[in-house]
Amino acid sequence: MLRNRKTAATRMLPLAALLLATLGLGGCAVEWQNRQAAKEVAERARPPGSLYAGWRVFQERCAACHGADATGTSRGPDLLPRVRDMGSRRFVSLVLNRYDWPLPAGQARGDGAARDALITEIEQRRQGGMTMPAWQGEPTVQAHIVDLYAWVSARAQGTLGPGRPVP
Questions:
Q1: 11: phi then psi, degrees, rounded to nearest 5
Q2: What number of other Cβ atoms are within 10 A of residue 1's Cβ?
Q3: What is the pLDDT of residues 30-62, one digit of tens each?
Q4: Range of 115's domain?
Q5: Do 61 and 145 form a contact (C-beta atoms < 8 A)?
Q6: Is 149 in contact with 143 (CB distance < 8 Å)?
């Protein structure tokens, strides 16, 4: 009888190993599928446009003031916090028409302490007005405004790191 139990246990060992291997591989497949679904959702959430083309236009037209990675210089502000909650329509309007105030979108409208402080600094010549040009008449910027928004928005959301994106 003891021998029969050993034989039964010996026969169960390969079955148990097969069951564990199946569960292990099944877990990998689920994880892979979840990554794939997450990647698809992220791609759908990203605004239309080419990140690489947007980066190129930014390097040619904007980086001199806003820095190569849009994080600002002494000539222009860090765009990442400004664009983070900005929709594509507002971005296009600001870039193509003109930028009214060097404040985040919510503070630029209406009466507020930040706006009043900015006006005071401009009046006292401690800070000049915005000198960012309206890019409406510039064919490259106008043709690639969607790409420019895609790149700056991806940088602002943290889904794209600094440097040149893959074409």
A1: -70, -30
A2: 4
A3: 555 566 665 565 555 555 789 999 999 999 999
A4: 51-157
A5: no
A6: no
